[in-house]
Structure formats: C-alpha cells, structure tokens
Design goal:
Layout: E1 7-9, E2 14-17, H1 26-37, E3 43-47, E4 56-64, E5 73-74, E6 79-85, E7 87-93, E8 99-106, E9 112-115, E10 120-125, E11 129-137, E12 145-146, H2 157-178
Parallel strand pairs: 2-3
Antiparallel strand pairs: 1-2, 3-4, 4-11, 5-12, 6-9, 6-11, 7-8, 7-10
Length: 179
C-alpha cells in the first residue's frame, strides 16, 4: 500500500490511520480508489478515528460506479456526508420502501448531506468514483444499522441488478413529478 502515513488494515475495504495528527492527501484518496477497484464491492475507506469504540467516527470513503449501497437506516445516530469528488443520488425511502426523495450530490453543486433522523436511504453512484467524507457518532454498534426486508443483500447479484433497474425507472418517474 502507498498511503502517506501508516495504517492498520481491518479488512480488504477498511483501514485505520495510525498517526496523530492524521493528514489526508490527494494521493491517499487515489490509493483508496486503487484499493476499491480490487475489491468485489468496489469500496474502500480510511478511518481517521482510532477504532470502533471512539465517540466520533470520521472516514474518507470511496465507492466505484458498480458499488451497491444497500438501503439502510441508523437507529441511534446521525450522519453527515461531504462529497469530495464525483456524483451520486441520495435516495430516501418510506418505511415500506416507497421512494420519498432523491437528491443529486456532487462535488460542484450540492456537496453536503446530513441525516438527522433514522430514514432508510441508499446511494446510487453516478460517476466512475464517488469520494466522500463521512462523520457519525460512535461507538460503532452493528445492530444500530437496520436493513429493511425489501432491501436486497449484497450477495444477490442478479436480483440486485433487477432492483437497481427498477429503481432507475422509479427515479425517472419521481423526478418528472417532483422537479
């Protein structure tokens, strides 16, 4: 790996910076893209907090165009997202899976999104790479993230493709009615 600082590898997608202070360079984000391109889910992140028990979690995250961000919500925490590079649609759903809102996020226009309530949401990556900064409260508790029954798991590749195709049609219809 060619990060500009020492890191601890948690798994193929997650790295923790092992330096204080943490300074992120453009080359570190390029390295994240390279790593993400080698993972099956086209995702990678550098966590600038020291571990899952920290009270503040800050991450630089990369998703490739083919990444599937499964609809989910966080029950007991808020999250803020700042787009550094690329474009994505933030899709918000009702409890039953109906499309509630779609917002285009990109580094040139609407570059910040904060969720202050436990809303089901997902990202649809529109550019080759989406590079963003995310902040949320800790400690990390996997049970705090809830996936609805209508949200397909990452492993169901053909079904996920069909879900995403249907989502694209739904978004087109939603934009016609709401923009």
């Amino acid at each position: 790996m060619a990060f500009s600082f020492p890191v601890r590898k948690e798994n193929d997608e997650v790295f923790y910076a092992e330096t204080n202070p943490v300074n992120i360079k453009k080359s570190d984000l390029e390295e994240l893209k390279r790593i993400a391109s080698l993972t099956p889910r086209e995702r990678a992140r550098i966590c600038t907090h020291t571990g899952p028990s920290d009270l503040l979690h800050e991450m630089f995250i990369v998703h490739g165009r083919g990444a599937y961000v499964r609809p989910h919500r966080h029950l007991n925490r808020h999250e803020g997202m700042l787009v550094i590079e690329g474009t994505a649609d933030m899709v918000v759903f009702s409890e039953s899976g109906e499309l509630r809102e779609v917002r285009r996020l990109d580094s040139a226009n609407c570059f910040y999104q904060r969720l202050n309530a436990p809303l089901y949401h997902m990202l649809l990556i529109r550019s080759e790479w989406l590079v963003f900064y995310e902040a949320t409260s800790g400690p990390f508790d996997r049970s705090d993230t809830e996936f609805p029954s209508w949200a397909l798991e990452d492993s169901k590749t053909d079904a996920v493709s069909e879900f995403l195709d249907k989502m694209e049609c739904t978004i087109v219809d939603w934009r016609k009615a709401n923009e």
